[in-house]
Amino acid sequence: MIATALEILKTVYGYDAFRGPQARIVAHVIGGDNAFVLMPTGGGKSLCYQIPAIARPGMGLVVSPLLALMADQVAALRQAGVRAAALNSDLPADERRALWRDIHGGSLDLLYVAPETLLRQAVLERLGQTRLSLIAIDEAHCLSQWGHDFRPSYRQLDALVGLFPDTPRMALTATADEPTRAEILSHLDIAETDAFIAGFDRPNIRYTIEEKDNPRAQLKDFLKRHKGESGIVYCLSKRKTEETAAWLRDQGYDALAYHAGMDRAAREANQMRFQHGEAVVMVATIAFGMGIDKPDVRFVAHIDLPGSIEAYYQETGRAGRDGLPSDALMLYGYEDIALRSRFIEQSDTPDPRKRMERQKLDALLGLAETAGCRRQVLLSYFGDDCEPCGNCDTCAEPPRLFDGTIAAQKALSCVYRTGERFGQAYIVDVLLGVENDRIAQFGHNRVSTFGIGTEHDNRTWRAILRQLIALRLVDVDLAGHGGLSITPAGRDFLRDKPTLMLRVPAAPRARRQKVARS
Ligand code: ADP
Ligand code: ZN
């Protein structure tokens, strides 16, 4: 009798139910279809190929990049009574011969192999004489040339498509961004309709994104709500982590710094204090992350803009591993956007890569400026989705919108009239008709847009410009000087003047509370 997927789940793994999309994926592959599986680490990808391999006739071939990972998986499977083995190049000759006998004799459910070994002519030929139930390519993002884990041998796995055209192919990864995903699908010839993406939601994390107005006051206010709890404050620079930690200690917090410039012993000591402490605030650069294994991190604050949505997701994801309510705050302002843009422009990466980095920054700004549910924007970036969550700042207090068509036209005209090379603060001053030396020096107190924006205050204009950047009507810093310029879409907007709804900037939290109290 052929066991059903659910029976295998219960008898082999001892679990009662599939999690998330596992059941759908397993059924899909048992039915003979290809699958692309995108799930965060720990989401349960292994079952998605192991169960179909056990259920289908033939042997499942699993391509995995690391010998150590393979050894762990094989040991765990054997323990559970599954006939699994790893084919690696340093097996002694007699074990190797015995393994091939098992393979050809049809007595294996799963064979793990590294791509370099698999792609040897002799290995491929011998596997060609074997009945395969499926081919699973784990850590499939290793085939992406843009990724950090690029492995040239992974790239050659596309040969399998032609060699085993009738065997279901699976690609599995936790690395989510859209270009990588598209590259994997096209390279392994897996259809968009065979993609399964889920498990990214962290419902216990509450997301809040605020304009960086007075960052120290905002941070202090945030930490007040987390007295006696541990959390992480991320900063961009080493110096800022030191300064912020010192300042927090002055405020009575048990705050520590962590960055790559500290010597190893000091770093490890701080990590230990954080790990075992009760109410420790770790003020860190992104160097702090690997190996944090603290279930009760109650908050993560970004007082500078993170590098991308993936980075934000990963960094905020260190909060609330225990499933209890946790808080994520991000502060961001125009300076952050200009700085990030400058990083990208001035790096010596090739142009296609720069374009991709810019797209990632744009996506992050889209999250920061959305009037909709933050969680929906975050999950949709990973191809996952949810209902409006009720557990983010925009759900709790939906931003008010106004017809910003005229304001956008004024702002764009002002960027244009001043030569598309000045930053946000300057443009806002010209719109408000501020008389200062710099504006006089450039003669911009005589342009037609000088003082045409007095109906809004400085704060609103800044919010308008940020939204125009997030909407890709305005570009920051293409030449590396922090200046704003008009994009082709911005030119279309000036010509067609479609209605544009913009969000009214929220009042700073501190002020809101005062208003509420009075
Ligand atoms: P990934 O490969 O996506 O990082 P794993 O496949 O290693 O994740 O699974 C992560 C953990 O979740 C493992 O301990 C696994 O046994 C467990 N797990 C997976 N699926 C289920 C399930 N349906 N029910 C309970 N536990 C599960
Ligand atoms: Zn929400």
TrEMBL record:
Residues 208-270 form the Rhodanese domain. It catalyses: Couples ATP hydrolysis with the unwinding of duplex DNA by translocating in the 3'-5' direction. Its cofactor is Zn(2+); Mg(2+). Residues 26-194 form the Helicase ATP-binding domain. Residues 218-362 form the Helicase C-terminal domain. It is an enzyme of class 5 (isomerase). Keywords: ATP-binding, DNA damage, DNA recombination, DNA repair, DNA-binding, Helicase, Hydrolase, Isomerase, Metal-binding, Nucleotide-binding, Zinc. Its EC number is 5.6.2.4. One of its GO terms (molecular function) is metal ion binding. GO terms for cellular component: bacterial nucleoid; cytoplasm; replisome. InterPro entries: DEAD/DEAH_box_helicase_dom, DNA_helicase_ATP-dep_RecQ, DNA_helicase_ATP-dep_RecQ_bac, Helicase_ATP-bd, Helicase_C-like, HRDC-like_sf, HRDC_dom, HRDC_dom_sf. The keyword Transmembrane helix does not apply. One of its GO terms (biological process) is DNA recombination. PANTHER family: ATP-DEPENDENT DNA HELICASE Q1, DNA HELICASE RECQ FAMILY MEMBER. Belongs to the helicase family. RecQ subfamily. This is DNA helicase RecQ. It comes from Nitrobacter hamburgensis (strain DSM 10229 / NCIMB 13809 / X14). The lineage of its organism: Bacteria, Pseudomonadati, Pseudomonadota, Alphaproteobacteria, Hyphomicrobiales.
